[in-house]
Description:
This protein is mainly beta.
Amino acid sequence: MSFHKNLITISIFSIIAPTVFADEIKQTTKLETIQLQAHPLVQSAADFSVADHVIDEAHLKQRATTIGDALADELAVYSNQYGTGASRPVIRGQDGPRVKVLQHASETADVSTLSPDHAVTVDPILAKQVEVIRGPSTLLYSAGNVGGLVNVTDQKIPTQMPENGLEGSAGLRYNSGNDQKLASFGATAGIGENFALRVEGSKHKANDYITPSYFHEHDGELEKEKRVGNTFAEGQTVNIGGSWIHDRGFVGLSYSNRQDQYGLPGHSHESHGCELHGDHFHCPTPDAEHDHEHESVGGPWVDLKSERYDIRTELNQPFTGFEKLRAHASFTDYEHDELEENSVISNFKSKGYDGRLELVHVPVAGWEGVIGTQISQQKIDLSAPDGHAHEEVNHEGHVHNDHDHDHAGHSHDVLMADTKTQKYSVFALEHKQIGDVHVELGARVDHQKIDVESSQKDYSGTGVSASAAANWEFAPNYKFSIVGSHQQRLPLAQELYADGLHFATNTYELGNDQLDKETSNNIELGLHYEGEKLDYHAHIYHNWFDDYIYGATIAQQGNLRGVEYTQDKAKFYGAEVQVGYAFTDQYKMSVFGDYVRGKIENENAPRIPSGRLGTKFEADFADGWSGSAEYYHVFNQDNIASYETETQGYNMVNVGVSYAGQINDRNDYRVFLNANNLLDDQVYSHASFLSNIPQMGRNFSVGIDFGF
């Protein structure tokens, strides 16, 4: 029997097991609360040497609806924003496949890694918390995440019975910068003694956002615009889940439905019909009448829908030698259209499943740890309607190269031929306290197969990764940390097989089926101090890549770029520092800064964020009032890659105030008002694919959250 069939069999057993075991238990007391976190060992940043960070539910409810923008103000985190509807986090200069975004430790199975204009299908508004994980712990979930890993912990499968039979929350929010209206709701109800039902959802709608001093080119002239065109966004998410809970664990399942519509700013029609040949483009002869037709319609936009099914279980003391068993399986059916007006230009489909099994063993010679296995599959199907065939290109005088022959049979109207990616993984994490030193060891082995429906060869490869960390408390309140890793990332289907025009981003992408696995060696040093009033944390890191996979820009014609995936030596290094001082129990001030530099073959890496330096003041006033004020400066980015332009620096001032109160013993509420970009500074993000388009100007958000 094949490996994946064995794993599925084990997963089914593990999901049924809690029910079987629970039948032998007579419940005479109230069920214990089961605390569910992504990390099977329930680690904390205080115990481990990594700079892990957690953003809780209360703060997430005041932030953006996309995961990149929701984390953009965190230390060493920027956003690869594509308008208001899509963004991915950029951590320590890394993004895409090197910063994996997970949904409760499971693959999202969307197509967000294919392009920055594709949304990540996680909802931070409904999340319980968002975890930024670094160090050996990342190997529990993925390899090659040298920047870090983001796990969005959801609440759609209950893990404990609600107090008094019912608990939940509801919230409303409005933002003046884009007229955004957002509503969210979640409730968990107890049905009987052992079953809990969860229903939750969110809905938002926003217009094009306002920005200061924005000039847009029209008919060869610059026109001042109040709003950035085609940055609207709207969407809704509905989750329904249920769990059977007992005193040794739980088993539950959920259904999720997500729908989004959002604009794609920065698009140009001059790329239509173009094909990449060597280091230059061949494009159809301009048609003035055709161009005029494009000007008369609205810009491109995305219509997205996703359905997801999850089943999750946890069992304490499943059998001798192990303290906990955890299993999780999911299936995702994803699709989005890229349109102009109501005409579909391209269609992206993805169907994927993901299964995990984890076993936390009893301590062995003082070592605590977890072992596990994972299997995933994703089928990506890209298509373009028959009516969108490119016009015949005038190739007069051009000698065709090998590219035209090698990729015969693949339509260049779509970004990539259909692919099926299968991955099988085993992993382990161990930790132990040895005197004043806490040691953590992690390892992961991935085997990946990719089948492609073209004349190109299929891919098969294996990656082996290992990591070690030590956290030494060399004096009271002082800790020194060191993290080292050797990681191997297997190439994505897009990096191997892309060969076509991506309409939304004005890029023609060309893959390379000769790519080898990407290998990196990484080291990080940290110094930490936790005093009664003063605390500080400082990290420096260096990442060396032997076969760094990236999209090199090899041609440009106007706004159209030709990108070819290749491999070179690369290095990324940087530092993060945060110093805090508590004047009293109510007032605290902190100073922070981060910097990263990236080089590929001694040339500047693309889209590397500039340095940032700032300060933040937090206050907890009496009688439920609290507030914060933040200022930071992002410096000019003039260390640019080929085909990039310099990005100006900016000053950011954010101020917030909130009031928390209670209606009675069971009902509480929180009202907040935030002023963002108070100076109305012009903000350009170098980490964004659209670094030439300004982000939102001065805006105010007001909201209320009600708990019951």
